[in-house]
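Chapter review: from sequence to fold.
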Amino acid sequence: MPTIRNRSKEKLIAGDLSLGMGLRQARTVDIAKIANACDYDWLFIDMEHNSMSLDTAAQICVAALDAGITPLIRVPGHEAFHASRLLDAGALGIVAPHVNNAAEAQRIVSNCLFPPAGKRSIPGGLPQIDFKTMPPAEVIPLVNEGMLTVVMIETPEGVDNVDEIAAVEGVDVLLMGGSDLSAEFGIPGQFGNKRMKDAFAKIFAACERHNKFPGVGGMYDHAIMQGYIEAGARFILSGSDLSFLMAGAQQRSSFLRTTLAKQPAGATPVLIS
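The token string follows.
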């Protein structure tokens, strides 16, 4: 019988860090193997903030399944079709932005899970089970169990209502979106600010009460990330392909220009044989 392995969910259940790489620039399927080789557990395929087509996202999802890394889609809205089309195409979970209350969280769960847990329409063959033919009575619990449903807390309203959001059955992760939340608080980019730390403490407490997993994203300073991990964050959006590319490229250009600057004026270049 087919099984569905959700590596990100396995790591969370084991109490380990579950590390994600954001995709904004990548458009080819080899990014799944690259992320896996770099010890990431999930891909954050960002359909909210990039121009990637649905077809490209679907191909990356299938490649991720074969590479053993969990493909997650950040959808651009709460409408059902944003989730269902990519879940049918291979995604193992949805990240829903700007979830402000229990009703919105319940809508996301309903979009992601088959009945009776949700209202997702049952398709034909699914890549998550290698397109094997199975009766719906077997597919439904298998796919529902393999799903990871993530809601983002990105507004003061979401923080105020975090306990009722965490109480929604079918929600797995509450992910604090640092960039938008700090901007909404009027302290953009101040991720170490007490208001941000207090917000995460409230999110973490709600997760503890309702057996959910707390996460953070949008905050990439090492000291700040360490602080949130020490405070209990386990689902970590670690950065994006764009930020990693720029950091590596800038480090290399800085090294090369510094090397040239250290040469004495008029020095004769020495070729290395």
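Two observations follow directly from the output. The mean pLDDT is 95. The beta strands are 18-23, 42-46, 70-74, 93-96, 148-153, 173-177, 213-217, 235-240.
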